[in-house]
């Protein structure tokens, strides 16, 4: 919202949804657009069901984090699982963004 205001623009929200999984079908079957994490709709982007473009203004990424209760800190099985998952995330993200970069359409021009 603030990124748009810096360009003298505002947004008009036509609808909201609590589920990322609905977004590709809504976008595909309407004239609406959505700003979503590409990882949430990767299959729809890579299959060509929706067109992905970089936003015309900077959108700050959400960091990945893993959280657990302190009583699970010494559980060796859960420690192994956290290390394994935390090791996979950067590899999966690298693959995702490489695939996405190949599929991105040209960046739209920002107009008021």
Describe the protein's architecture and organization.
This protein has 112 residues and is an all-alpha fold. The chain has one domain (2-103). It is 39% helix and 0% strand. It has 4 helices and no strands. The chain has helices at 2-5, 23-28, 42-47, 76-103. The longest helix is centred in the last third of the chain and has 28 residues, at 76-103.
Architecture blueprint of SSEs:
Blueprint: H1 2-5, H2 23-28, H3 42-47, H4 76-103
The parts where pLDDT drops under 50 for at least 5 residues are: none
Please tally the helical runs, counting DSSP H or I stretches of 4 or more residues.
4
What share of the residues lie within helices? 25-40%
* Mean pLDDT across residues: 82
Please report which band the strand proportion falls in: under 5%, 5-15%, 15-25%, 25-35%, 35-45% or over 45%.
under 5%
Number of strands: 0
Q: Any idea what the radius of gyration is?
A: 18 Å
Task: Give the end-to-end Cα distance, rounded to a whole number of Å.
Answer: 14 Å
Structural class: mainly alpha
């Amino acid at each position: 919202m603030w990124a748009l205001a810096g360009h003298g623009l505002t947004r008009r929200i036509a609808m909201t949804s609590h589920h990322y999984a609905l977004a590709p079908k809504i976008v595909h079957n309407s004239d609406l657009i959505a700003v979503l994490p590409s990882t949430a709709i990767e299959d729809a982007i890579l299959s060509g069901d929706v067109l992905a473009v970089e936003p015309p203004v900077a959108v700050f990424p959400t960091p990945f984090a893993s959280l657990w209760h302190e009583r699970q800190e010494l559980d060796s099985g859960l420690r192994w699982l956290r290390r394994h998952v935390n090791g996979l995330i950067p590899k999966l993200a690298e693959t995702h963004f490489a695939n996405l970069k190949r599929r991105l359409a040209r960046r739209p021009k920002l107009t008021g």
